[in-house]
Amino acid sequence: MVMKVYSPEFRADAVALYLSDPSHTFEGIGKDLGISRETLRNRVRAERARRGPSGATSTNTKDVPVSEATRQELEAEIAALRTELKTVRKENQKLATERDILRKATKFFAQETTW
After folding, report:
1. Mean pLDDT, consecutive 10-residue segments, the chain of 115 residues?
2. pTM of the model
3. Does residue 14 contact residue 33 with C-beta atoms inside 8 Å?
4. Dist CA 32 CA 17 (whole Å)
5. Is 6 exposed, middle or buried (0-12, 13-18, 19+ CB in 10 A)?
């Protein structure tokens, strides 16, 4: 079997892709990128060990000053997300109520159709 040699950029991108979303699996990302699941798992382990237990990179982001424009953009985005979350929660509550009504109706009709 031939050993494949991947560039450091490809390796870093593969690890970053896996770490970007908790729902990703080694198997899924490995198939998508054409690499072994075990190879990806070893690379992710090495990256996590390099970052340390906190998962932070070597640069400390707390020391980086944030410009006022960036701060305003972030605050606007947070406000928009809070508004969206409020809307989604209301819709979720409505759907839960509708689901409960339909469950009760299903039980009623199930009793009515039993002869």
Report:
1. 75 88 87 88 90 60 64 90 96 94 87 73
2. 0.44
3. yes
4. 11
5. middle
